């Protein structure tokens, strides 16, 4: 089994004081021996997080990146910039980027390629809306998003991804997919990966990202194809996020 990864996504939240709170909270935290922990913070806090978390288990990640390496693209941030500030992972294709900022499968693939070119680990987000789930299209949507990226990558690039299944209807709504619902989709993703390569399916980390919190983390993480979590609101509270990380042991 892959080493679990618990990744928090602060979205457009946080502060320098919160960065310091996490530094203190995780400096002497007791974590399972085999768990990776990351926090995806807003661009302005990347450098501060890199400095503050140097002596903790926390790995710094970013929330998106440009598909261009440099140039006249006001407001954009390149992968090399993220890497220079200490980021090691970056979210790509989060549902909010897809829905609010119009990033389609082609745009997501371009950003995955940009991340890989800078030796950043892309955390590729996949997920369906409530309407798509109610229409019985969950697997078609999720696997379609996955295939749109895998088909555009080389065989040697695919293993460098981390996947995150995030049912859009369970993000920030207080609703959570049941462990059985989450496992069903994770299992379908794993099965599709097997179509590409058995070792890819075996080694790929697939995170669950739909309102994971301290109260439900252990049950979700106990599912055979859930390799960690992409945590939203609970990642803004040191104690809650630490409790989720401890559940991954």
TrEMBL record:
Q: Which GO terms describe its biological process?
A: gluconeogenesis; glyceraldehyde-3-phosphate biosynthetic process; glycerol catabolic process; glycolytic process
Q: Which UniProt keywords apply?
A: Cytoplasm, Gluconeogenesis, Glycolysis, Isomerase
Enzymatic reactions: D-glyceraldehyde 3-phosphate = dihydroxyacetone phosphate
**InterPro entries, per the entry:** Aldolase_TIM, TIM_sf, TrioseP_Isoase_bac/euk, Triosephosphate_isomerase, Triosephosphate_isomerase_AS
What molecular function terms (GO) are annotated for this protein? triose-phosphate isomerase activity
The keyword DNA-binding is annotated on this UniProt entry:
no
- Which family is this sequence assigned to? Belongs to the triosephosphate isomerase family.
Q: What is this protein called?
A: Triosephosphate isomerase
Which species is listed as the source? Halomonas stenophila
Query: What is the organism lineage in this UniProt record?
Result: Bacteria, Pseudomonadati, Pseudomonadota, Gammaproteobacteria, Oceanospirillales
Q: By which gene is this protein encoded?
A: tpiA
């Amino acid at each position: 089994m892959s080493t679990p990864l618990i990744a928090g996504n602060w979205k457009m939240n946080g502060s320098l004081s919160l960065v310091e709170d996490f530094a203190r909270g995780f400096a002497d935290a007791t974590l399972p021996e085999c768990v990776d922990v990351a926090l995806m913070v807003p661009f302005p806090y990347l450098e501060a997080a890199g400095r503050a978390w140097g002596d903790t288990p926390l790995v710094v990640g970013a929330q998106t990146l440009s598909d261009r390496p440099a140039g006249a693209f006001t407001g954009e941030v390149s992968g090399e910039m993220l890497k220079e500030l200490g980021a090691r992972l970056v979210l790509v294709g989060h549902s909010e980027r897809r829905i609010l900022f119009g990033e389609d499968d082609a745009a997501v693939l371009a950003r995955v390629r940009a991340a890989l070119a800078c030796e950043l680990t892309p955390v590729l987000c996949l997920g369906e809306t409530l309407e798509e789930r109610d229409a019985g299209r969950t697997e078609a949507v999720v696997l379609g998003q996955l295939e749109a990226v895998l088909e555009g990558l080389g065989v040697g690039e695919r293993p460098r991804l981390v996947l995150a299944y995030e049912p859009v209807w369970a993000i920030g709504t207080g609703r959570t997919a049941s462990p059985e619902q989450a496992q069903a989709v994770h299992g379908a993703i794993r099965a599709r990966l097997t179509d590409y390569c058995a070792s890819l399916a075996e080694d790929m980390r697939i995170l669950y990202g739909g309102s994971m919190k301290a109260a439900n983390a252990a049950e979700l993480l106990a599912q055979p194809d859930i390799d960690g979590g992409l945590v939203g609101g609970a990642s803004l509270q040191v104690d809650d996020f630490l409790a989720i990380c401890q559940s991954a042991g």
